[in-house]
Amino acid sequence: MAMKIRLSRGGSKKRPHYSIVAADSRMPRDGRFKEKLGTYNPLLPKGDERRVIMDTDRVQYWLSQGAQPTDRIQRFLENAGMVEKKERSNPKKGTPGKAAQERAAARAEKAEAAKAAAEAPADDTASE
């Protein structure tokens, strides 16, 4: 059985509140789970200690049993010092999208044309 440590959403519309749970990976996000391990309240400020609350002993137990944390849970565990920080590589993160690249190219062409137009009359007056 493939176990995951993941978030299960609760709360009302636009007021999310998550439970950190150990669940079978085949179960739905808000479905059946084996054990509740903590809570996550994204509405609290980042520095608040009540934002993420975990039972670290039980989390360690599930990790030792082979449970895989999701990306968000992995970050929580790294911040708590329970696991080593993982090197992340997202080379496309800083690059603009296709439309933004097209707009930048159009702007560059327009600026080049304006610069060329500004230089052309200046050359004609200098030769007279």
UniProtKB/TrEMBL annotation:
<dbReference type="Pfam" id="PF00886">
    <property type="entry name" value="Ribosomal_S16"/>
</dbReference>
<comment type="similarity">
    <text>Belongs to the bacterial ribosomal protein bS16 family.</text>
</comment>
<dbReference type="GO" id="GO:0006412">
    <property type="term" value="P:translation"/>
</dbReference>
<feature type="region of interest" description="Disordered">
    <location>
        <begin position="81"/>
        <end position="128"/>
    </location>
</feature>
<dbReference type="GO" id="GO:0015935">
    <property type="term" value="C:small ribosomal subunit"/>
</dbReference>
<dbReference type="GO" id="GO:0003735">
    <property type="term" value="F:structural constituent of ribosome"/>
</dbReference>
<keyword id="KW-0687">Ribonucleoprotein</keyword>
<dbReference type="InterPro" id="IPR023803">
    <property type="entry name" value="Ribosomal_bS16_dom_sf"/>
</dbReference>
<dbReference type="InterPro" id="IPR000307">
    <property type="entry name" value="Ribosomal_bS16"/>
</dbReference>
<feature type="compositionally biased region" description="Basic and acidic residues">
    <location>
        <begin position="100"/>
        <end position="113"/>
    </location>
</feature>
<keyword id="KW-0689">Ribosomal protein</keyword>
<dbReference type="GO" id="GO:0005737">
    <property type="term" value="C:cytoplasm"/>
</dbReference>
<protein>
    <recommendedName>
        <fullName>Small ribosomal subunit protein bS16</fullName>
    </recommendedName>
</protein>
